[in-house]
Amino acid sequence: RTHRKERQTCFQCSEPIVGPSVAALDKDWHPDHFVCNSCQKPFVDGAFVVGTDGMPYCEEDFARLFAIKCAGCDGLIERESINAMGLEWHPEHFVCHNCKTLFGDDANFVAVDQRPYCISCNAKLFETQATS
Questions:
Q1: How do residues 67-123 score in pLDDT, each as one tens digit?
Q2: Which residues of 107-125 are buried (b: 16+ CB within 10 A; e: fewer)?
Q3: Backbone phi, psi, residue 84, to 5°
Q4: Which residues contact 50 (CB under 8 A, 6 or more apart)?
Q5: Taking the model in full, what pTM does it have?
Q6: Is 56 in contact with 48 (CB distance < 8 Å)?
Q7: Which neighbouring-strand residues pair with 95?
């Protein structure tokens, strides 16, 4: 028996591929159609990252669209983080919203409007308002 190879179809444009192709993510692409799913630019040195949607992204767009960001600085969290109030924080940015005291892992804080306050600032800022 002879095996006939199926004609390759480009995942991006659905047109037949004649000539060179790129095989990536279990799909075939025309070389000029294998680009970042967001900015549509070719990948520098062929480096790409797969998004949660299964599509290829340049590192910059992947970070912008999918990476976890710090609630304190909006920067990317690439290493360790603290999860508090359902948000992720760089350890150095998990501080009292008012006095900027660093909380650390075993933080004793009060959340007001999704912002952490130390016990002292919470008492000064909010408990006095409630009693006046």
A1: 889 999 998 888 899 999 999 999 999 999 999 999 976 678 999 999 999 999 999
A2: bebbeeeeebbbeebbeee
A3: -145, 140
A4: 25, 56, 57
A5: 0.57
A6: yes
A7: 102
